[in-house]
């Protein structure tokens, strides 16, 4: 199980390889929302997404273990629609090993090109979890690569937790946050966010945003077992994955609620951030802000920490 020491060790491990992204505020968005929002812009992170944290922590910890046993770290593999793919490719380059990344053929081209740019090999597959897992299994059998799962891995979750750790530390002078919001796909970031908040700011609630077109987490949260979304159709390509038993356990224990939003609401929130904050975020990043605007009365007058998860947008396919 992950404890505070695990998260602190992860932060110590990755801090030399990542940016400590700033905390941003925007008066116009605060006025429109009725809340005071403290944005953690992980679109400014290495690889353009928070997932650099989890990928690095997992790969660096694996390399430490191999050195302890006097062995060299061999190739690594994962499956991802994009940001975790880039994280593992980047981390593999940092430690000098080969990475094989299984990506859906529908993943944004900008993300595929970034993975290749970090020196990894991309293996395309059909856009289903079954195809992704089959692709990884073939890579493992062929190359002996070690799997770094996108979210069902405590090393990855502990790395993702460092984003909220920084957010909490960097807003301490403003008083404790009432809520921290993050999007949910496979649940790695939300699990890490919930754990870091539990240990470092226990009176702060954690609330997730989820697309209506990939609404499995809200069903799993309610039923207590991993559920499938009724249908998968959303602009938030980074949030199409279902939870695992591991992430559902953390989320059920430490998350207050999950709010769903439509693609139109996601696009409106994304456009607002582009226009008012002058930063590029991808659709998945906009989901928590869309959830806040949809439920303004729930957050009125409160201090809200919000993780903007990434900015890897295909600029040739903007939704506005």
Structural class: alpha/beta
pLDDT < 50 stretches: none
Give the second-level CATH assignment, the architecture of the largest domain. Answer: 3-Layer(aba) Sandwich
At the first level of CATH, the class of the largest domain is Alpha Beta
What strand line-up does the widest sheet have?
A: 1-9-6-7-8
Number of domains: 2
- Helix count equals 13
Beta strand %:
5-15%
Assembly type of the shown chains?
single chain
Order of helices and strands: HHEHEHEHEHEHEHEHHEHHHE
Annotation, overall tally of beta strands: 9
**How much is the average pLDDT?**
96
Overall geometry: globular
Structural notes for this entry:
- This protein is of the alpha/beta class and 320 residues long.
- The chain folds into two domains: 4-49 and 154-308, Rossmann fold, CATH 3.40.50.1100; 52-147, Rossmann fold, CATH 3.40.50.
- The protein is built from 13 helices and nine strands.
- The chain has helices spanning 4-14, 27-33, 51-68, 83-95, 109-117, 129-143, 154-170, 188-200, 217-223, 245-254, 263-277, 283-294, 296-299, and strands spanning 36-41, 76-79, 99-104, 121-125, 146-147, 179-183, 205-211, 257-261, 303-308.
- The strands form two sheets. Strands 1-9-6-7-8 form a five-stranded parallel sheet, sandwiched between helices. Strands 4-3-2-5 form a four-stranded parallel sheet, with helices on both faces.
- The model has no long low-confidence stretch (mean pLDDT 96).
